[in-house]
Major facilitator superfamily (MFS) profile domain-containing protein
Amino acid sequence: MLSTQPTPLPKIEDVIVIEEESAASYVKSEGDDLEGSTVGRTDFTETEQRKILRKIDFRLLPILGAMYAISLMDRTNLGLAAVAGMNSDLNLIGNRYTIIIMVFFVMYIIFEIPSNLMLSKAGPANWLAFLGVAFGSILIGMGFTKSFETMAICRALLGATEAGFLPGCTFLISCWYKRLGAFWILSVIVSGFAAVFAYVLTLLKGKHGLNGWQWIFIIEGAITVVICVIGWFLIADFPEKAKFLTLKERQYAIERINDDRGDGEQDKITLRLVIHHLADPKLYAFSFMLMSSTLPGYAYSYFLPIIFKEGLGYSTSKSQLMSAPPYILAAILTYTSSWLADRFQIRGPVIAFHQAMTFTGMLITAFAESTGARLFGAYLGIGFLQY
C-alpha cells in the first residue's frame, strides 16, 4: 500500500543549491505542499517586505524607467524636429510629413506580435537591449538623412524595431509590480521634458554643418543606445530568475503578484492559450479603449508643435517650449485620478470622464478660433489624456 504520510520537504540549505531554472518549477509544482514552509508562503515582517521591495526598486526602477521613457521620447520627437527645420530641409510638402508618420505605424503593426513572441524566447534583457540599440542606431541615422525617401525608410525601420520595445517594457514591469501608475506618470513627465530637451538641442544648429532638428535625432539616438546597453547588464528577466534576490525573496516577489492578480509565474505560449485570450471580449474592449487614448495622444505629439507654429504663429523655440506645460498638468491629473480610482475602486467612471475631457479638448484645439481657446483645448486634451 502507498504510504499516507506526507513526504518531508527538503531543508532550505538543500533547496538553495537547486539549479536556478528548476527552482521556479519546484515551487510551482509543490505549491500546495509548501503552504507555511520557508520556501512557500513566506511570512516576512512588514519591515522585511519593505526592504525587499526597496532592493527590487533600486535594481529595476531606474533602468526600466529610463528605457521606458526614452522609447516614448524617440517615437514622438518628429513633431519637435518638424518645427526645427526638418520639413523645409527635406522638402516635406503636401502629405509627405503624414506619410513618414504613417509608415512607422504600418511596420509597427506588422512586427509587434512577432517581436512580443521573441521576448520570451530570447529573454527580456537580451531582446529589449537588442531592440533599443537597433532603433537608437536608426535614430542616429535619421539625423543624417538628406531626402524624404531616406527619412521614410528610416521611419519604417524605426517602426519595425520599436514594435516590441514598449510592450516588452510594460510586460516586464508588470512581472515585478502590481501597478503601472508610476511608470505612466514618468512617461508623461518625460513627454514634457522632451519638448524642452529638443529646444536645447536645436541650439546646436550650425555645429559641424548640421541643423537643429538633426541634433535632436543624433543626441537622443545616442542616449538610447547607451541606456539600452546598460539595461542589458542590469535587467532581471523575471522574479524566479533574479540572482540579486535570495530564493525566499524570489518566492515572495512571485506571491506578491499572484496575490494581486494570479499571474506571477510566466506562462508557456501555446496556440490554445492564444486562442483562449483572442476569444475574450474584454481584449477587444481594452483595445478600443487604448486606441481611444493613443489616437489623440499621437495627434498631439506629432502635430501640437506644428499647430503652435503654423496655426498660432509662434516661433520655433516657443512652439517647442509651449508643448511642455500641458504634460506637467497631465502628470498631476494622472496621479490624482490613479489615487482616486484605487482608493474608491471606481476605475470605469474615472476612465470615462478622462475620455470625455480629452474628446472635448481635441474639439476645442481643432475648431476654436481664438488663440487662448486653442491653448485651453490643448491643456484640456493632453491633461486628461494620459490616465
Notes: The chain has a mean pLDDT of 82. The chain is about 75% helix and 0% strand.
